[in-house]
């Protein structure tokens, strides 16, 4: 389909008639959302775990034509949700060609567009704006100014055009006017200075601002969407009350409510395809990695105000796969199968994502991370093998047995070491992992059993001695 190229052609096209003619962006979002709901089409592809909690609130906000804010800790898919909003926009909309603020040809707001239409009439050139160009995002920082967001006077424009400084044609538009007829998203809203926040709520309510003392009317057609940390979105000087009052909906995001949902997100986001080399991550290793984040969110040594980002298990899985890949290349193993020892090798992916309280700082991030891994292994063992009798394994250690193996050995060599522990490989075989035909997975399972027993304090583990009997027994 050929799009109209002049205002006259546009008037004679479907865009010149209701409901498309001069439809506001929030009405556009609302109409397209209703169509998706009627078709039972996916609303926010790639956003997992919010179908029964956050998505209904987002739908209500869009149907109500509200500006809204997503309140949540880091790593809760807030930015992904905002970027997905562009999918509810029309594929393309007409604008006055050359307009800096995406002027609607039927309802121009800038002096430039009004003058052009007055001069050219139906011959006014029309351009088309794709939905991908109608989403503008800005990370709020304290140094963001009114000029950045709203605009400023440009003396060069005034001199070249022979205009007074008070003339609208001398204005250099900021990000917000350039997002006209689209979506403008601001991440970490409370980090904006009070002066800039005042400029925002004035635009939201009255549509006018003052640039260097000159009043400028900007009746913008824009959906404003924000994100913030709940701890910062308070009246303690971080957010001004009039702006808070003008935001129609506050939606509180959350971390995955279950380990299974978390695993689904991590598998979706983690990069585990490695140049044609076969990568097989046992499901119990995936669960172990996911439970690290869940343990961190409950640990008193971790700052609850910062949370534990969902990026933690994603990067841990990627790093664990990388360590297993390095071993497979060095030992010429045909496949990449991460073990528990590979998860320990991914500790650098954990420490940088934990904001520790004073007690945690005293112990050190590395020690806290290793303890979280061990506790996660205990949870996995209890969930998967809680009904198994593992006393034969524990008894061997209690009677003085000790086992230390290197994580850099081939799976077959590793298995011979585990074979010294009575009953260990029998348990592995009972859960369907044959040490003879599936050595890499059997090694990973055996490691998990011993790590889980160490977490349950039935045996002991140290970097120097390996697995030994529990002290005091």
List the helices and strands and how they pair.
Layout: H1 7-11, H2 25-39, H3 54-63, E1 68-71, H4 78-84, E2 92-96, H5 111-120, E3 126-130, E4 135-139, H6 146-149, E5 151-153, H7 155-161, E6 171-173, H8 175-178, E7 182-187, H9 194-205, E8 208-211, E9 214-217, E10 222-228, H10 241-246, E11 249-252, H11 259-269, E12 278-279, H12 283-298, H13 311-331, E13 335-336, H14 340-345, H15 348-351, H16 358-363, H17 365-385, H18 391-398, H19 411-418, H20 424-430, H21 439-455, E14 459-462, E15 466-469
Parallel strand pairs: 1-10, 1-11, 4-7, 7-10, 12-13
Antiparallel strand pairs: 2-3, 5-6, 8-9, 14-15
Helix pairs in contact: 11-12, 11-13, 12-13, 12-17, 17-21, 19-21, 20-21
Q: Please list the strands of the largest sheet in the order they lie side by side.
A: 4-7-10-1-11
**What overall form do the CA principal axes indicate?**
elongated
Q: Please name the CATH architecture of the largest domain.
A: 3-Layer(aba) Sandwich
Number of domains: 2
What structural class do helix, strand and pairing data support?
alpha/beta
What does it look like?
With 473 residues, this protein is α/β, with parallel strands linked by helices. The chain has 2 domains: 246 residues, Rossmann fold (3-Layer(aba) Sandwich), CATH 3.40.50; 211 residues, no CATH class. 43% of the residues lie in helices and 13% in strands. The protein has 21 helices and 15 strands. The strands form 6 sheets. Strands 4-7-10-1-11 form a 5-stranded parallel β-sheet. A hairpin with a 3-residue loop joins strand 14 and strand 15. Helix 12 runs antiparallel to helix 13. The chain is elongated, with a radius of gyration of 30 Å. The model has no long low-confidence stretch (mean pLDDT 89).
């Amino acid at each position: 389909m050929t799009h109209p190229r002049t205002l006259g052609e546009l008037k004679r096209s479907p865009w010149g008639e209701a409901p498309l003619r001069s439809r506001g962006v929030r009405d556009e979002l609302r109409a397209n959302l209703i169509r998706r709901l009627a078709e039972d089409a996916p609303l926010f592809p790639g956003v997992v775990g919010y179908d029964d909690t956050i998505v209904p609130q987002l739908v209500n906000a869009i149907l109500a034509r509200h500006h809204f804010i997503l309140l949540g800790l880091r790593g809760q898919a807030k930015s992904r949700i905002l970027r997905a909003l562009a999918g509810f926009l029309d594929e393309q909309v007409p604008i006055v060609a050359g307009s800096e603020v995406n002027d609607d040809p039927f309802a121009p707001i800038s002096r430039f567009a009004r003058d052009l239409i007055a001069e050219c009439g139906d011959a006014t050139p029309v351009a088309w704006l794709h939905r991908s160009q109608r989403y503008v995002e800005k990370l709020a920082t304290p140094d963001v100014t009114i000029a950045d967001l709203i605009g400023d006077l440009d003396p060069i424009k005034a001199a070249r055009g022979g205009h007074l400084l008070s003339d609208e044609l001398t204005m250099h538009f900021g990000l917000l006017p350039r997002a006209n007829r689209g979506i403008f998203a601001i991440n970490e809203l409370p980090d904006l200075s009070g002066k800039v926040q005042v400029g925002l709520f004035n635009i939201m309510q009255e549509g006018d601002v003052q640039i260097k003392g000159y009043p400028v009317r900007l009746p913008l057609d824009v959906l404003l969407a924000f994100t913030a940390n709940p701890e910062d979105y308070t009246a303690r000087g971080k957010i001004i009350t009039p702006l808070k009052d003008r935001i129609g909906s506050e939606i509180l995001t959350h971390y995955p409510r279950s380990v299974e949902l978390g695993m689904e997100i991590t598998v979706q986001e983690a990069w585990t395809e490695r140049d044609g080399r076969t990568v097989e991550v046992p499901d119990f290793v995936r669960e172990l990695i996911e439970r690290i984040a869940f343990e961190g969110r409950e640990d008193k040594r971790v700052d609850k105000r910062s949370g534990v980002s969902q990026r933690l298990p994603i990067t841990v899985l990627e790093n664990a796969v990388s360590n297993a890949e390095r071993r497979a290349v060095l030992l010429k193993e045909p496949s990449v199968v991460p073990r528990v020892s590979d998860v320990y090798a991914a500790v650098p992916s954990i420490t940088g994502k934990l904001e520790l309280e004073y007690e945690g700082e005293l112990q050190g991030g590395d020690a806290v991370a290793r303890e979280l891994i061990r506790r996660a292994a205990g949870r996995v063992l209890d969930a998967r093998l809680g009904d198994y009798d593992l006393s034969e394994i524990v008894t061997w250690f209690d009677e003085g047995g000790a086992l230390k193996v290197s994580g850099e050995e081939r799976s077959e060599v590793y298995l011979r070491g585990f074979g010294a522990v009575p009953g260990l490989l029998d348990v592995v075989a009972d859960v369907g992992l044959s040490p003879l035909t599936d050595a890499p997975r059997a090694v990973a399972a055996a490691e998990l059993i011993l790590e889980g027993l160490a977490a349950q304090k039935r045996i002991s583990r140290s970097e120097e001695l390996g697995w030994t009997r529990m002290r005091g027994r």
